[in-house]
Amino acid sequence: MLTSLVLSAALLGLAHATLVDLNTTQSDGVTILETKTFETTLTPANKIVVGGGTAGLTIARRLAESSLKTSVLVLEAGGSGVGLNVVTIPEKSFSFVGTDIDWGFTIAPQEHAGEYEINLSSGKILGGDSAVNGLVWTRASKAEYDAFETLGSPGWNWDTLYAHMRKAEQLEYPSASLIDEYGYVVDASSLGESGPVSVSFPAYLPIQHKTLVEASVELGHTFNTDAYSGDNAGVYYSLSSQNTVPVRETSEFAYLTPWETHKQLTVFTYATVSKINLDDSSEPKATGVQVIFPDGSEYTASLKSGGEVILSAGVVRTPQLLELSGIGNSSILTPLGIDVKVELPGVGANYEDHTMALLTYQLKDGYLSFDALSYNETLLEEETELYSEGEGWLTFAQAVVNFEPIDVILTADEIEEAKEILSTKPESTPQDQFDILKELILNGTTQVEYLLFNSFSAGDDKESNTSYVSLSITHTHPLSRGSIHINSTSIDDFPVINPNMFEAEWDQWWLAKATAYGRKFFQTQAFQEIVVSEEVYPGSSVSTDDEWLEYVKENLNAGYHSAGTASLLPKESNGVVGANLTVYGTQNLRVVDLSILPMLISAHTQPAAYAIGELAATLITTGSTNC
Ligand SMILES: Cc1cc2nc3c(=O)[nH]c(=O)nc-3n(C[C@H](O)[C@H](O)[C@H](O)COP(=O)(O)OP(=O)(O)OC[C@H]3O[C@@H](n4cnc5c(N)ncnc54)[C@H](O)[C@@H]3O)c2cc1C
Ligand SMILES: *[C@@H]1O[C@H](CO)[C@@H](O)[C@H](O)[C@H]1NC(C)=O
Ligand SMILES: *[C@@H]1O[C@H](CO)[C@@H](O)[C@H](O)[C@H]1NC(C)=O
Ligand SMILES: *[C@@H]1O[C@H](CO)[C@@H](O)[C@H](O)[C@H]1NC(C)=O
Ligand SMILES: *[C@@H]1O[C@H](CO)[C@@H](O)[C@H](O)[C@H]1NC(C)=O
Ligand SMILES: *[C@@H]1O[C@H](CO)[C@@H](O)[C@H](O)[C@H]1NC(C)=O
Ligand SMILES: *[C@@H]1O[C@H](CO)[C@@H](O)[C@H](O)[C@H]1NC(C)=O
Ligand SMILES: *[C@@H]1O[C@H](CO)[C@@H](O)[C@H](O)[C@H]1NC(C)=O
Ligand SMILES: *[C@@H]1O[C@H](CO)[C@@H](O)[C@H](O)[C@H]1NC(C)=O
After folding, report:
1. Closest CA to 410 of 444, 437, 438, 452
2. Signal sequence: where (predicted)?
């Protein structure tokens, strides 16, 4: 295991912040001895950030460099991603699954779907999910962000979130030769130009992804030349969170390195927070947090007076930490013997994730996908060499997405059927969210995303020496709501993760229809040139409505865009935080991560996580959401 501590000048009084291995002696003679340094050298901080993930490092850096001159301590359970191929190489984006930087969460068997366990891998590393995700960089449509404000949170709308996404990002505009070769199109005026997070197009685009653009156009879908300004419908070239070197961009690389420039910032890695310490006032005040190191030693990190704790442990761990600290639904906490400090039943409720189905096709002879990297050693060697020059297959993770509203996918009769299904509110959907979502669904907001995985990603019959592609079909606005709750008092036990997928009839029906439509992409002239006509998975045995429904139920995947377990909503609507992100009923505890997103959007979620970190920093430093 990589063992290192990241300590800053503020901590040790050194001239520069340092990255030190445990048990090593620095040139200036300071020996860092395991975790003892934590206790003996750490002074109380103004802000303690729990979790050095996507949103956590964003807010930590912004606060540390702000005019508040505030000391910021970040406690992250994982280590640094610097120099790890599985993090830095775009093509390796999902290879972390099952490694020691994967938390290894699983979704409880879903009673309305296949009743099997579904992986919900997540990054246990500085950068969090930004260090392990699929690199896709997208925005939803204006109305979807405005819905947060409509649900009761002043200032949380398209204008502020768009401004803060732009504050995070820096477009690296494609070179003329890349535009010429692949046809990349992006409207630079819709993207940030000077933020820390580099976004760019890969130096290599597999022909099958270019084919997805052509197939979409052949199906009559719009080619969107400006998908980042609040209208995301159609097929388009999507940016990736990578620079043009190309190295994946993570919140660690974007906001933390180089360390020297952030003297107010202290980051401890391999530091797992097990509890937030709250005093006994009627409106409890956080005094610090409990931290556990890999050797089992436990310490208290304290707050300075007037300080605050910022919880950024992600959608699974944030509600767990709130509950372990006595904030939540007493019907859940009391039976576990936890002293209830704040009765707040919204903690862990309102949970959702995108749902996803897949179709697999075989490429014709002469066409190769990433599958070939594992059966053709010559190719792997060639591509590894090319990558060191910034070129070739390994620079690519994704570059084409297609978002569509229901009227592009459904027939007129089916739209009537959709209206019929939507005339009844599903049990788990809150009424106000249902009213908004129904309007978005019927008013042309996109509800499905199609994109291509450049490898065999679903099915039973993968043949050796063969290259495949899989189309992923994602339902972007599920109505079903579930929960994430603890069922033990130990930080080492994962909470029970239950998105309640497919509880709503709409969620089943729409994903089945959208998946059936997915087959049409492969029947276009464009795809027929490069794929074997016969579908590999699920194949011709699935074709009726009932068969598609059965197929999606038995082959359901998580979309890896979990949200909502500490929702930004009024308290009476099961909210956990108000517009300033302070947890209801507490004085100085905020949540700053994707847990606050009250409803999912028709987009991948990392830009929203960065925007939440940026906007929270604006709120804390200026007292308002305007930047
Ligand atoms: C496999 C995968 C693929 C994805 N693909 C994409 C994509 O292509 N595009 C996109 O836009 N989005 C994608 N997403 C989603 C996106 O990355 C996340 O929504 C977003 O990064 C979440 O940010 P966050 O700050 O809420 O949480 P995270 O970034 O997960 O941060 C939480 C941090 O807290 C730490 N932590 C947790 N518990 C503790 C504790 N007790 N003590 C100390 N530290 C703790 C974690 O280790 C982690 O670093 C993907 C996600 C995954 C998992
Ligand atoms: C530090 O050194 C001690 C003594 O050699 C050893 O027992 C311990 O495992 C080391 N710790 C780490 C994290 O390498
Ligand atoms: C689920 O995760 C385990 C390791 O945690 C891994 O071995 C397995 O391949 C994963 N399954 C899928 C479908 O990714
Ligand atoms: C609180 O927990 C109880 C027991 O699990 C449950 O019945 C109730 O619905 C929960 N309340 C909320 C708002 O989730
Ligand atoms: C393996 O890759 C090499 C190098 O790209 C290529 O020339 C060769 O045709 C490939 N072989 C197979 C069986 O795909
Ligand atoms: C939906 O369309 C109707 C009719 O055009 C319009 O009145 C309404 O404002 C629209 N709603 C949204 C959320 O755009
Ligand atoms: C796969 O191809 C390689 C090289 O082209 C060959 O050596 C090997 O026997 C093939 N394997 C199978 C199972 O066809
Ligand atoms: C808690 O949930 C986990 C994960 O779902 C499960 O494995 C475990 O058996 C549950 N424990 C209890 C005490 O219910
Ligand atoms: C957050 O907002 C609430 C409600 O407006 C207010 O009572 C509280 O003082 C605010 N907290 C902070 C830290 O600004």
Report:
1. 444
2. 1-17
